[in-house]
Write a structure and sequence with these properties.
single chain, 284 residues, six-stranded mixed beta sheet, Rossmann fold, alpha/beta, 12 strands
Length: 284
Amino acid sequence: MVPAAQRPVLNAAVLGQPVAHSLSPTLHAAGYRALGLTEWRYTAHEVGADDLAGWVGERDESWRGLSLTMPLKEVAFEVAATVTETARVTGAVNTLVRREDLGWDAHNTDVHGIEAALAGAPHDGAATVLGGGATARSALLALAGLGVRSVQLAVRGDARPETLRLAVHAGVAVEVVALADWARDPGRLVVSTLPPAGAVAAAAALGGPAGGRKGRELSGATVMDVVYADWPTPLARAATAAGATVVSGLDMLVHQAAEQFRLFTGEAPPVDAMYAAGRQALAR
């Protein structure tokens, strides 16, 4: 066995703009520590859409994987040698994995993250998705994998054609409603893919004291908010007050990062250690 000090360094990183807020370095580093992978390094780099191809092209063979956040999830197709079916149909890449020929394979692990975070949540074949962008497309595919066959898609304007096309591909019937109306008949499973500002409007739709009337009931429902910072979010607080079981975006984040960890290192991810590190970081 080669001593740890003599092993070549293996690099991975998260790229985006902005990226300083990302928990990915914390999660991956915790995984490395748990498995004794002392040769691995995971860093964060501020990279914009126009700079991605050049930045990626300058990486040497020590670079094994890249996690991508906004605004890189669509432009990443341009630097990939191959694209998984999941990434293709969602139109979003959040992971690049180094190939033996030093090219890059494009993946979408957000779908895995959502599906794993909601495993076991009751839904009766129906769900509500708040928002219609790239993360909403990942949510639709994940929900299809969980057996959901009809979705109420709540958006502020018109639904994006690519999101509706994905629903058809996944065999999910979609009813588009205004975001302000999502809580009228949400079903037993709700996934919010909205940014923090949009989630405030979604929370207001539940009513309650802030709305000056009795709030809507969500007893028996599960509500997942993909936002994990500044928890609980306004939507999480409103859903809890309405009687829902609330799932934090940290659950999705950890599971998608764990799948990246597996793709980068070839090792089974230590999910519990990654969870613990994420919770500790958010509590600071």
